[in-house]
């Protein structure tokens, strides 16, 4: 009986901590080195996800407290419809982003300067510092972002605000009248 109450107490402590103690998430993207690193730390544990592109395949590695847990070689999938619901469901606080980028033509660099408004429409409380390079000889993007993520609110958002499934009912068309 005491074991049951101990487990129940432990679960309740983790639930309370998930709503009160935010996780720190750091994202580093560097297209010159073909590298993406996402690091998340909550309480005293750290989880890292690393994508490296080597030749035609991509390597995906997961680290837990700086020890490699798993590693896979990924093949690229065909691009399909993107769903930004998952990004909107995140409960992000104190987010900041530093981006440096450049394209071969100044026109594309200028057009991409408006991309920060698109990001701010998805994640409204983020500050973005952009450093465009209008005279670059190659295309590159270097992003360093940091945010605090409330795990409890994010989990609730994912459960309660799931996108509605398509209805398979036939309601007719205007030609049926």
Sum up the structure in keywords.
177 residues, alpha+beta, eight-stranded mixed β-sheet
Give a topology summary.
Layout: H1 2-20, E1 23-30, E2 35-42, E3 45-54, E4 57-64, E5 67-74, H2 85-88, E6 92-102, H3 106-112, H4 115-122, E7 126-133, E8 140-149, H5 151-160
Parallel strand pairs: 6-7
Antiparallel strand pairs: 1-2, 1-8, 2-3, 3-4, 4-5, 6-8
The general outline is globular
Individual helix count:
5
Number of strands: 8
Distance between the termini: 67 Å
Largest sheet: 8 strands, mixed
Broad structural category: alpha+beta
Radius of gyration: 21 Å
Low-confidence stretches: 166-170
Enumerate the strands of the largest sheet in spatial order, edge to edge or round the barrel.
5-4-3-2-1-8-6-7
Mean pLDDT score: 79
Which sequence of SSEs, written as H and E, runs from N to C? HEEEEEHEHHEEH
């Amino acid at each position: 009986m005491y074991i049951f109450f101990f487990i129940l107490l432990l679960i309740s402590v983790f639930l309370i901590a998930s709503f009160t103690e935010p996780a720190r998430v750091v994202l580093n993207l560097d297209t010159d080195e073909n590298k993406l690193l996402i690091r998340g730390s909550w309480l005293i544990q750290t989880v890292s996800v690393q994508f490296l592109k080597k030749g035609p395949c991509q390597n995906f590695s997961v680290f837990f407290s700086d020890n490699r847990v798993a590693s896979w070689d990924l093949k690229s999938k065909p691009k399909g419809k993107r769903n930004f619901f998952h990004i909107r469901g995140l409960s992000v606080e104190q987010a900041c982003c530093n981006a440096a980028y450049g394209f071969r033509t100044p026109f594309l660099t200028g057009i991409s300067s408006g991309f920060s408004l698109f990001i701010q429409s998805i994640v409204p409380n983020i500050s973005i510092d952009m450093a465009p390079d209008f005279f670059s000889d190659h295309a590159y993007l270097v992003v360093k972002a940091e945010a605090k993520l409330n795990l409890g609110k994010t989990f609730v958002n994912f459960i309660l605000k799931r996108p509605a499934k398509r209805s398979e009912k036939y309601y007719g068309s205007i030609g049926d009248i």
